[in-house]
Amino acid sequence: MQSTSMDPFIVLVICLSCLILLFLWNQSYVKGKLPPGPTPLPIVGNILQINTKNISKSRSKLAEDYGPVFTVYFGMKPTVVLHGYEAVKEALVDQSEEFSGRGSMPVFDKVSQGLGIVFSNGERWKQTQRFSLTVLRNMGMGKNTIEDRIQEEALCLVEALRKTNASPCDPTLLLGCAPCNVICSVVFHCCFEYSDEKLLTLLNYLDENMKIASTAWIALYNALPFLIHYLPGSHNALFNNIAGQQKFILEKIKEHQESLDLNNPRDFIDYFLIKMEKEKHNKQSEFTMDNLITTIWDLFSTGTETTSTTLRYGLLLLLKHPEVTGKVQEEIDRVIGRHRSPCMQDRSRMPYTDAVVHEIQRYIDLVPNNVPHATTRDVKFREYLIPKGTAILLSLTSVLHDDKEFPNPEQFDPGHFLDASDNFKKSDYFMAFSAGKRVCVGEGLARMELFLLLTNILQHFTLKPLVDPKDIDTTPPASGITSVPPFYELCFIPV
Protein backbone atom coordinates (compact mmCIF):
# COMPACT_ATOMS: atom_id res chain seq x y z
CA MET A 1 0.00 0.00 0.00
CA GLN A 2 1.05 3.53 -0.81
CA SER A 3 0.37 5.16 2.55
CA THR A 4 2.91 3.20 4.64
CA SER A 5 5.74 5.48 3.51
CA MET A 6 3.80 8.32 5.15
CA ASP A 7 3.38 6.55 8.48
CA PRO A 8 6.81 7.24 10.05
CA PHE A 9 6.36 10.88 9.05
CA ILE A 10 2.96 11.10 10.77
CA VAL A 11 4.35 9.40 13.89
CA LEU A 12 7.22 11.90 13.92
CA VAL A 13 4.80 14.86 13.62
CA ILE A 14 2.68 13.52 16.50
CA CYS A 15 5.72 12.91 18.73
CA LEU A 16 7.07 16.37 17.99
CA SER A 17 3.70 17.97 18.72
CA CYS A 18 3.46 16.15 22.04
CA LEU A 19 6.95 17.33 22.95
CA ILE A 20 6.13 20.91 21.99
CA LEU A 21 2.94 20.76 24.03
CA LEU A 22 4.72 19.31 27.05
CA PHE A 23 7.35 22.01 26.77
CA LEU A 24 4.71 24.76 26.56
CA TRP A 25 2.85 23.26 29.47
CA ASN A 26 5.99 23.18 31.58
CA GLN A 27 6.67 26.77 30.65
CA SER A 28 3.29 27.93 31.91
CA TYR A 29 3.49 25.90 35.10
CA VAL A 30 7.04 26.99 35.86
CA LYS A 31 6.32 30.65 35.14
CA GLY A 32 2.81 30.96 36.48
CA LYS A 33 -0.24 29.36 37.87
CA LEU A 34 -2.74 29.63 35.03
CA PRO A 35 -6.48 29.39 35.75
CA PRO A 36 -8.21 26.00 35.20
CA GLY A 37 -9.88 25.07 31.92
CA PRO A 38 -10.78 22.18 29.60
CA THR A 39 -7.96 19.74 28.76
CA PRO A 40 -6.40 20.67 25.40
CA LEU A 41 -5.50 18.21 22.63
CA PRO A 42 -2.01 18.25 21.07
CA ILE A 43 -1.54 20.89 18.32
CA VAL A 44 -5.22 21.94 18.06
CA GLY A 45 -5.75 22.71 21.77
CA ASN A 46 -9.43 23.25 22.62
CA ILE A 47 -10.49 24.40 19.15
CA LEU A 48 -12.66 21.29 18.63
CA GLN A 49 -14.54 21.88 21.91
CA ILE A 50 -15.48 25.43 20.94
CA ASN A 51 -18.28 26.21 18.53
CA THR A 52 -16.45 28.57 16.16
CA LYS A 53 -19.79 29.73 14.70
CA ASN A 54 -20.75 31.12 18.09
CA ILE A 55 -17.67 31.55 20.26
CA SER A 56 -19.60 33.63 22.84
CA LYS A 57 -22.04 30.82 23.62
CA SER A 58 -19.18 28.34 24.08
CA ARG A 59 -17.49 30.84 26.43
CA SER A 60 -20.57 31.18 28.63
CA LYS A 61 -20.81 27.40 28.90
CA LEU A 62 -17.14 27.15 29.94
CA ALA A 63 -17.61 29.96 32.48
CA GLU A 64 -20.40 27.91 34.08
CA ASP A 65 -17.99 24.99 34.44
CA TYR A 66 -14.77 26.81 35.39
CA GLY A 67 -15.83 30.18 36.82
CA PRO A 68 -15.21 33.73 35.52
CA VAL A 69 -11.46 33.24 34.90
CA PHE A 70 -10.38 30.20 32.88
CA THR A 71 -7.79 29.06 30.34
CA VAL A 72 -8.39 27.71 26.83
CA TYR A 73 -5.88 26.74 24.17
CA PHE A 74 -6.33 28.00 20.61
CA GLY A 75 -3.78 25.78 18.97
CA MET A 76 -0.78 25.51 21.27
CA LYS A 77 -1.05 28.87 23.01
CA PRO A 78 -2.87 29.33 26.30
CA THR A 79 -5.43 32.14 26.38
CA VAL A 80 -6.92 33.34 29.65
CA VAL A 81 -10.61 34.22 29.28
CA LEU A 82 -12.25 36.79 31.57
CA HIS A 83 -16.02 36.45 31.81
CA GLY A 84 -18.46 38.79 33.55
CA TYR A 85 -18.32 42.46 34.55
CA GLU A 86 -16.26 42.02 37.74
CA ALA A 87 -13.36 40.16 36.07
CA VAL A 88 -13.39 42.35 32.94
CA LYS A 89 -13.42 45.60 34.93
CA GLU A 90 -10.68 44.33 37.27
CA ALA A 91 -8.39 43.74 34.27
CA LEU A 92 -9.27 46.66 31.96
CA VAL A 93 -9.82 49.39 34.57
CA ASP A 94 -8.18 48.43 37.90
CA GLN A 95 -5.06 46.81 36.35
CA SER A 96 -5.18 48.66 33.04
CA GLU A 97 -1.40 48.97 32.59
CA GLU A 98 -0.75 45.24 33.18
CA PHE A 99 -3.49 44.23 30.73
CA SER A 100 -2.78 46.86 28.05
CA GLY A 101 -0.74 44.63 25.74
CA ARG A 102 -2.20 43.53 22.41
CA GLY A 103 -2.66 39.78 21.97
CA SER A 104 -1.82 38.09 18.71
CA MET A 105 -4.38 37.74 15.90
CA PRO A 106 -2.32 36.01 13.23
CA VAL A 107 -4.57 36.92 10.32
CA PHE A 108 -4.15 40.65 11.06
CA ASP A 109 -0.60 40.43 12.44
CA LYS A 110 0.36 39.19 8.98
CA VAL A 111 -0.85 42.50 7.54
CA SER A 112 0.01 45.00 10.28
CA GLN A 113 3.42 43.54 11.22
CA GLY A 114 3.06 45.02 14.72
CA LEU A 115 2.60 48.57 13.34
CA GLY A 116 -0.25 51.09 13.68
CA ILE A 117 -2.57 51.59 16.66
CA VAL A 118 -4.70 48.47 16.87
CA PHE A 119 -2.15 45.64 16.71
CA SER A 120 1.02 47.32 18.01
CA ASN A 121 2.61 46.94 21.44
CA GLY A 122 5.03 48.61 23.84
CA GLU A 123 6.69 51.91 23.06
CA ARG A 124 5.51 51.91 19.42
CA TRP A 125 1.88 51.57 20.50
CA LYS A 126 2.22 54.26 23.20
CA GLN A 127 3.80 56.77 20.82
CA THR A 128 1.49 56.06 17.87
CA GLN A 129 -1.63 56.16 20.02
CA ARG A 130 -0.63 59.34 21.86
CA PHE A 131 0.26 61.07 18.60
CA SER A 132 -2.99 59.98 16.91
CA LEU A 133 -5.17 61.15 19.79
CA THR A 134 -3.41 64.54 19.84
CA VAL A 135 -3.84 65.03 16.09
CA LEU A 136 -7.48 63.96 16.17
CA ARG A 137 -8.13 66.43 19.00
CA ASN A 138 -6.30 69.18 17.06
CA MET A 139 -8.58 68.43 14.16
CA GLY A 140 -11.69 68.87 16.24
CA MET A 141 -12.54 65.34 17.33
CA GLY A 142 -15.21 65.80 19.96
CA LYS A 143 -15.48 69.51 19.03
CA ASN A 144 -17.87 71.52 16.87
CA THR A 145 -15.72 71.36 13.75
CA ILE A 146 -16.13 67.60 13.40
CA GLU A 147 -19.81 67.88 14.34
CA ASP A 148 -20.35 70.27 11.42
CA ARG A 149 -18.62 67.78 9.16
CA ILE A 150 -20.94 64.95 10.31
CA GLN A 151 -24.01 67.16 9.89
CA GLU A 152 -23.00 67.94 6.30
CA GLU A 153 -22.51 64.25 5.66
CA ALA A 154 -25.87 63.42 7.26
CA LEU A 155 -27.58 65.69 4.73
CA CYS A 156 -25.75 63.94 1.87
CA LEU A 157 -26.93 60.61 3.26
CA VAL A 158 -30.55 61.84 3.46
CA GLU A 159 -30.30 63.01 -0.19
CA ALA A 160 -28.90 59.62 -1.27
CA LEU A 161 -31.69 57.78 0.58
CA ARG A 162 -34.26 60.04 -1.10
CA LYS A 163 -32.91 58.93 -4.48
CA THR A 164 -33.91 55.34 -3.73
CA ASN A 165 -37.48 56.58 -4.47
CA ALA A 166 -39.01 54.60 -1.60
CA SER A 167 -38.25 51.37 -3.46
CA PRO A 168 -36.66 48.34 -1.71
CA CYS A 169 -32.92 48.71 -1.21
CA ASP A 170 -30.02 47.07 0.61
CA PRO A 171 -28.71 49.92 2.80
CA THR A 172 -25.18 48.51 3.26
CA LEU A 173 -23.18 50.76 0.93
CA LEU A 174 -25.19 53.93 1.53
CA LEU A 175 -24.77 53.61 5.30
CA GLY A 176 -21.04 53.04 4.72
CA CYS A 177 -20.59 56.21 2.65
CA ALA A 178 -21.31 58.69 5.45
CA PRO A 179 -18.86 57.43 8.14
CA CYS A 180 -16.31 56.68 5.41
CA ASN A 181 -16.45 60.27 4.15
CA VAL A 182 -16.13 61.67 7.68
CA ILE A 183 -12.98 59.64 8.32
CA CYS A 184 -11.65 60.49 4.81
CA SER A 185 -11.97 64.20 5.55
CA VAL A 186 -9.98 63.74 8.77
CA VAL A 187 -7.28 61.51 7.29
CA PHE A 188 -7.06 62.42 3.58
CA HIS A 189 -8.66 65.90 3.55
CA CYS A 190 -11.07 64.74 0.88
CA CYS A 191 -14.50 63.24 0.52
CA PHE A 192 -16.26 61.39 -2.24
CA GLU A 193 -19.52 61.54 -4.14
CA TYR A 194 -21.62 58.54 -3.07
CA SER A 195 -21.50 57.21 -6.63
CA ASP A 196 -17.69 57.41 -6.85
CA GLU A 197 -16.20 54.09 -7.99
CA LYS A 198 -13.19 54.44 -5.67
CA LEU A 199 -15.41 54.94 -2.65
CA LEU A 200 -17.62 51.98 -3.54
CA THR A 201 -14.59 49.76 -4.09
CA LEU A 202 -13.16 50.72 -0.68
CA LEU A 203 -16.52 50.06 0.99
CA ASN A 204 -16.84 46.70 -0.76
CA TYR A 205 -13.39 45.68 0.53
CA LEU A 206 -14.40 46.63 4.08
CA ASP A 207 -17.77 44.92 3.92
CA GLU A 208 -16.33 41.72 2.47
CA ASN A 209 -13.54 41.65 5.06
CA MET A 210 -15.98 42.13 7.93
CA LYS A 211 -17.90 39.07 6.67
CA ILE A 212 -14.76 36.97 6.11
CA ALA A 213 -13.33 37.92 9.53
CA SER A 214 -16.48 36.61 11.22
CA THR A 215 -16.21 33.10 9.75
CA ALA A 216 -15.08 29.88 11.42
CA TRP A 217 -12.27 29.63 8.81
CA ILE A 218 -10.59 32.77 10.19
CA ALA A 219 -10.94 31.44 13.76
CA LEU A 220 -9.11 28.34 12.50
CA TYR A 221 -6.46 30.49 10.77
CA ASN A 222 -5.84 32.36 14.03
CA ALA A 223 -5.40 29.07 15.92
CA LEU A 224 -3.22 27.28 13.33
CA PRO A 225 -1.66 29.99 11.10
CA PHE A 226 1.46 27.93 10.28
CA LEU A 227 -0.82 25.35 8.63
CA ILE A 228 -3.77 27.30 7.23
CA HIS A 229 -1.72 30.13 5.71
CA TYR A 230 -0.51 27.92 2.86
CA LEU A 231 -3.92 26.46 2.04
CA PRO A 232 -6.42 27.95 -0.39
CA GLY A 233 -9.23 29.73 1.49
CA SER A 234 -10.98 33.01 2.25
CA HIS A 235 -7.95 34.40 4.12
CA ASN A 236 -6.39 35.00 0.69
CA ALA A 237 -9.34 37.17 -0.35
CA LEU A 238 -8.95 39.09 2.91
CA PHE A 239 -5.24 39.74 2.21
CA ASN A 240 -6.01 40.83 -1.37
CA ASN A 241 -8.67 43.27 -0.20
CA ILE A 242 -6.33 44.78 2.37
CA ALA A 243 -3.59 45.10 -0.26
CA GLY A 244 -6.10 47.06 -2.37
CA GLN A 245 -6.84 49.40 0.54
CA GLN A 246 -3.15 49.92 1.24
CA LYS A 247 -2.46 50.73 -2.40
CA PHE A 248 -5.10 53.49 -2.20
CA ILE A 249 -3.57 54.79 1.06
CA LEU A 250 -0.08 54.87 -0.46
CA GLU A 251 -1.34 56.86 -3.49
CA LYS A 252 -2.89 59.39 -1.11
CA ILE A 253 0.36 59.68 0.90
CA LYS A 254 2.35 60.31 -2.32
CA GLU A 255 -0.08 63.11 -3.30
CA HIS A 256 0.39 64.62 0.17
CA GLN A 257 4.18 64.46 -0.03
CA GLU A 258 4.09 66.46 -3.27
CA SER A 259 1.92 69.24 -1.86
CA LEU A 260 3.06 69.27 1.79
CA ASP A 261 3.40 72.63 3.53
CA LEU A 262 5.33 72.04 6.77
CA ASN A 263 3.65 75.03 8.44
CA ASN A 264 0.09 74.24 7.35
CA PRO A 265 -1.01 70.68 8.03
CA ARG A 266 -4.36 69.90 6.37
CA ASP A 267 -5.10 66.48 7.83
CA PHE A 268 -3.75 63.43 9.66
CA ILE A 269 -1.32 62.44 6.88
CA ASP A 270 0.24 65.93 6.88
CA TYR A 271 0.72 65.92 10.66
CA PHE A 272 2.39 62.50 10.43
CA LEU A 273 4.67 63.50 7.52
CA ILE A 274 5.75 66.62 9.46
CA LYS A 275 6.54 64.44 12.47
CA MET A 276 8.57 62.10 10.20
CA GLU A 277 10.53 65.08 8.88
CA LYS A 278 11.27 66.26 12.45
CA GLU A 279 12.50 62.83 13.47
CA LYS A 280 14.34 61.86 10.30
CA HIS A 281 17.74 61.74 12.11
CA ASN A 282 16.40 59.55 14.90
CA LYS A 283 17.22 55.95 13.91
CA GLN A 284 14.81 54.64 16.58
CA SER A 285 11.87 56.77 15.47
CA GLU A 286 8.48 55.07 15.35
CA PHE A 287 7.33 57.62 12.76
CA THR A 288 8.11 55.70 9.58
CA MET A 289 6.35 55.32 6.24
CA ASP A 290 5.29 51.75 7.11
CA ASN A 291 3.82 52.88 10.42
CA LEU A 292 1.96 55.69 8.65
CA ILE A 293 0.35 53.28 6.16
CA THR A 294 -0.78 50.88 8.89
CA THR A 295 -2.00 53.64 11.23
CA ILE A 296 -4.16 55.08 8.46
CA TRP A 297 -5.42 51.62 7.56
CA ASP A 298 -6.42 51.17 11.24
CA LEU A 299 -8.19 54.54 11.48
CA PHE A 300 -9.85 54.13 8.11
CA SER A 301 -11.17 50.58 8.53
CA THR A 302 -12.23 50.79 12.17
CA GLY A 303 -13.63 54.29 11.67
CA THR A 304 -15.80 53.27 8.75
CA GLU A 305 -16.82 49.68 9.31
CA THR A 306 -17.86 49.66 12.98
CA THR A 307 -20.11 52.72 12.64
CA SER A 308 -21.74 51.62 9.39
CA THR A 309 -22.34 48.07 10.69
CA THR A 310 -23.90 49.49 13.89
CA LEU A 311 -26.18 51.75 11.81
CA ARG A 312 -27.17 48.87 9.53
CA TYR A 313 -27.90 46.60 12.48
CA GLY A 314 -29.72 49.47 14.20
CA LEU A 315 -32.11 50.01 11.28
CA LEU A 316 -32.89 46.28 11.23
CA LEU A 317 -33.81 46.41 14.93
CA LEU A 318 -35.96 49.50 14.34
CA LEU A 319 -37.78 47.67 11.52
CA LYS A 320 -38.50 44.81 13.89
CA HIS A 321 -39.69 47.14 16.67
CA PRO A 322 -41.87 49.80 14.99
CA GLU A 323 -43.19 50.91 18.42
CA VAL A 324 -39.61 51.97 19.35
CA THR A 325 -39.15 53.79 16.03
CA GLY A 326 -42.44 55.63 16.59
CA LYS A 327 -41.36 56.88 20.02
CA VAL A 328 -37.99 58.12 18.66
CA GLN A 329 -39.80 59.99 15.87
CA GLU A 330 -42.20 61.60 18.38
CA GLU A 331 -39.18 62.78 20.39
CA ILE A 332 -37.48 64.14 17.24
CA ASP A 333 -40.67 66.06 16.31
CA ARG A 334 -41.01 67.47 19.82
CA VAL A 335 -37.37 68.50 20.37
CA ILE A 336 -36.00 69.23 16.89
CA GLY A 337 -39.01 69.52 14.60
CA ARG A 338 -38.75 69.14 10.81
CA HIS A 339 -36.97 72.29 9.80
CA ARG A 340 -33.52 72.19 11.32
CA SER A 341 -30.79 69.57 11.50
CA PRO A 342 -30.24 67.59 14.71
CA CYS A 343 -27.15 68.64 16.71
CA MET A 344 -25.29 67.12 19.66
CA GLN A 345 -26.88 69.62 22.06
CA ASP A 346 -30.23 67.96 21.37
CA ARG A 347 -29.05 64.69 22.86
CA SER A 348 -29.44 65.74 26.50
CA ARG A 349 -33.09 66.67 25.76
CA MET A 350 -33.74 63.35 23.97
CA PRO A 351 -33.34 60.63 26.62
CA TYR A 352 -35.35 58.04 24.69
CA THR A 353 -33.33 58.42 21.47
CA ASP A 354 -30.10 58.33 23.49
CA ALA A 355 -31.31 55.13 25.18
CA VAL A 356 -32.14 53.59 21.78
CA VAL A 357 -28.63 54.32 20.41
CA HIS A 358 -27.08 52.72 23.52
CA GLU A 359 -29.45 49.75 23.40
CA ILE A 360 -28.60 49.10 19.73
CA GLN A 361 -24.92 48.93 20.66
CA ARG A 362 -25.55 46.81 23.73
CA TYR A 363 -27.86 44.40 21.95
CA ILE A 364 -25.78 43.81 18.80
CA ASP A 365 -22.61 43.28 20.83
CA LEU A 366 -20.46 44.22 17.82
CA VAL A 367 -17.10 42.89 19.05
CA PRO A 368 -18.19 40.02 21.33
CA ASN A 369 -14.73 39.09 22.64
CA ASN A 370 -12.98 42.43 22.26
CA VAL A 371 -9.70 42.44 20.31
CA PRO A 372 -7.33 40.13 22.26
CA HIS A 373 -5.25 41.76 24.98
CA ALA A 374 -1.99 40.48 26.47
CA THR A 375 -0.27 40.93 29.82
CA THR A 376 2.63 43.41 29.76
CA ARG A 377 4.34 41.73 32.75
CA ASP A 378 3.82 38.77 35.09
CA VAL A 379 0.50 39.56 36.77
CA LYS A 380 -1.09 38.34 39.95
CA PHE A 381 -4.79 38.19 39.14
CA ARG A 382 -7.08 36.85 41.86
CA GLU A 383 -5.37 33.63 42.99
CA TYR A 384 -3.53 33.08 39.70
CA LEU A 385 -0.17 34.11 38.36
CA ILE A 386 -0.43 34.98 34.67
CA PRO A 387 2.94 35.14 32.86
CA LYS A 388 3.96 38.20 30.81
CA GLY A 389 2.76 37.98 27.20
CA THR A 390 -0.19 35.66 27.89
CA ALA A 391 -3.14 36.29 25.55
CA ILE A 392 -6.24 37.60 27.34
CA LEU A 393 -9.74 37.40 25.88
CA LEU A 394 -12.34 39.61 27.53
CA SER A 395 -15.93 38.56 26.95
CA LEU A 396 -17.74 41.84 26.29
CA THR A 397 -20.91 39.80 25.67
CA SER A 398 -20.90 38.72 29.30
CA VAL A 399 -20.87 42.40 30.32
CA LEU A 400 -23.31 43.83 27.75
CA HIS A 401 -25.71 40.92 28.27
CA ASP A 402 -25.45 40.72 32.06
CA ASP A 403 -28.95 39.81 33.28
CA LYS A 404 -28.68 41.61 36.62
CA GLU A 405 -27.73 44.93 35.04
CA PHE A 406 -29.98 44.47 31.97
CA PRO A 407 -33.02 42.30 32.86
CA ASN A 408 -33.91 40.04 29.87
CA PRO A 409 -30.68 40.92 28.04
CA GLU A 410 -31.73 38.94 24.94
CA GLN A 411 -34.62 41.39 24.48
CA PHE A 412 -34.13 44.63 22.55
CA ASP A 413 -35.43 47.15 25.09
CA PRO A 414 -34.40 50.84 25.33
CA GLY A 415 -35.74 50.69 28.91
CA HIS A 416 -32.38 49.15 29.81
CA PHE A 417 -31.00 52.71 29.68
CA LEU A 418 -33.93 54.61 31.24
CA ASP A 419 -34.73 55.20 34.92
CA ALA A 420 -38.19 55.16 36.53
CA SER A 421 -38.82 58.76 35.39
CA ASP A 422 -37.74 57.99 31.80
CA ASN A 423 -34.49 59.94 32.14
CA PHE A 424 -31.39 58.51 30.45
CA LYS A 425 -29.55 56.16 32.81
CA LYS A 426 -25.79 55.62 32.42
CA SER A 427 -24.36 52.16 33.03
CA ASP A 428 -20.80 51.10 33.87
CA TYR A 429 -21.62 47.88 32.04
CA PHE A 430 -21.84 49.75 28.72
CA MET A 431 -18.45 48.66 27.34
CA ALA A 432 -19.31 48.66 23.65
CA PHE A 433 -16.04 50.59 23.02
CA SER A 434 -14.07 48.45 25.48
CA ALA A 435 -12.46 50.26 28.47
CA GLY A 436 -9.10 51.16 30.01
CA LYS A 437 -5.93 52.02 28.11
CA ARG A 438 -6.97 50.24 24.90
CA VAL A 439 -10.40 51.87 24.71
CA CYS A 440 -11.43 52.67 21.11
CA VAL A 441 -9.55 55.78 19.88
CA GLY A 442 -12.57 56.93 17.85
CA GLU A 443 -15.20 56.50 20.57
CA GLY A 444 -16.11 60.21 20.65
CA LEU A 445 -16.45 60.35 16.87
CA ALA A 446 -18.49 57.13 16.69
CA ARG A 447 -20.93 58.25 19.40
CA MET A 448 -21.48 61.54 17.55
CA GLU A 449 -22.00 59.82 14.20
CA LEU A 450 -24.45 57.25 15.53
CA PHE A 451 -26.63 59.89 17.21
CA LEU A 452 -26.57 62.41 14.35
CA LEU A 453 -26.92 59.97 11.44
CA LEU A 454 -29.71 57.96 13.07
CA THR A 455 -31.75 61.03 14.09
CA ASN A 456 -31.33 62.51 10.60
CA ILE A 457 -32.60 59.32 8.95
CA LEU A 458 -35.61 59.08 11.29
CA GLN A 459 -36.35 62.80 10.96
CA HIS A 460 -36.78 62.41 7.20
CA PHE A 461 -38.01 58.86 6.60
CA THR A 462 -40.43 56.19 7.72
CA LEU A 463 -38.71 52.80 7.62
CA LYS A 464 -40.81 50.20 5.82
CA PRO A 465 -39.90 46.51 6.06
CA LEU A 466 -40.58 44.09 3.19
CA VAL A 467 -41.91 41.41 5.57
CA ASP A 468 -44.02 41.41 8.72
CA PRO A 469 -41.87 42.76 11.61
CA LYS A 470 -42.63 39.54 13.54
CA ASP A 471 -40.81 37.57 10.83
CA ILE A 472 -37.66 39.70 10.86
CA ASP A 473 -34.72 37.67 12.17
CA THR A 474 -32.04 39.80 13.85
CA THR A 475 -29.65 36.94 14.65
CA PRO A 476 -26.17 37.46 13.15
CA PRO A 477 -25.42 34.70 10.56
CA ALA A 478 -21.92 34.41 12.04
CA SER A 479 -20.35 35.88 15.12
CA GLY A 480 -16.58 35.61 15.10
CA ILE A 481 -14.37 38.67 15.52
CA THR A 482 -17.47 40.82 14.93
CA SER A 483 -21.25 40.32 14.80
CA VAL A 484 -22.52 41.12 11.31
CA PRO A 485 -26.27 41.58 10.75
CA PRO A 486 -28.14 39.29 8.34
CA PHE A 487 -28.81 40.65 4.83
CA TYR A 488 -32.06 42.61 4.52
CA GLU A 489 -33.77 45.23 2.37
CA LEU A 490 -36.12 48.05 3.34
CA CYS A 491 -37.89 51.08 1.87
CA PHE A 492 -37.14 54.64 2.99
CA ILE A 493 -40.48 56.44 2.70
CA PRO A 494 -40.03 60.25 2.87
CA VAL A 495 -41.97 61.81 5.74
UniProtKB/TrEMBL annotation:
<keyword id="KW-0349">Heme</keyword>
<dbReference type="Pfam" id="PF00067">
    <property type="entry name" value="p450"/>
</dbReference>
<keyword id="KW-0560">Oxidoreductase</keyword>
<keyword id="KW-0408">Iron</keyword>
<keyword id="KW-0492">Microsome</keyword>
<keyword id="KW-0503">Monooxygenase</keyword>
<dbReference type="InterPro" id="IPR001128">
    <property type="entry name" value="Cyt_P450"/>
</dbReference>
<protein>
    <submittedName>
        <fullName>Cytochrome P450 2C21-like</fullName>
    </submittedName>
</protein>
<keyword id="KW-0472">Membrane</keyword>
<dbReference type="InterPro" id="IPR050182">
    <property type="entry name" value="Cytochrome_P450_fam2"/>
</dbReference>
<comment type="similarity">
    <text>Belongs to the cytochrome P450 family.</text>
</comment>
<keyword id="KW-0479">Metal-binding</keyword>
<keyword id="KW-0256">Endoplasmic reticulum</keyword>
<dbReference type="InterPro" id="IPR036396">
    <property type="entry name" value="Cyt_P450_sf"/>
</dbReference>
<dbReference type="InterPro" id="IPR017972">
    <property type="entry name" value="Cyt_P450_CS"/>
</dbReference>
<dbReference type="InterPro" id="IPR002401">
    <property type="entry name" value="Cyt_P450_E_grp-I"/>
</dbReference>
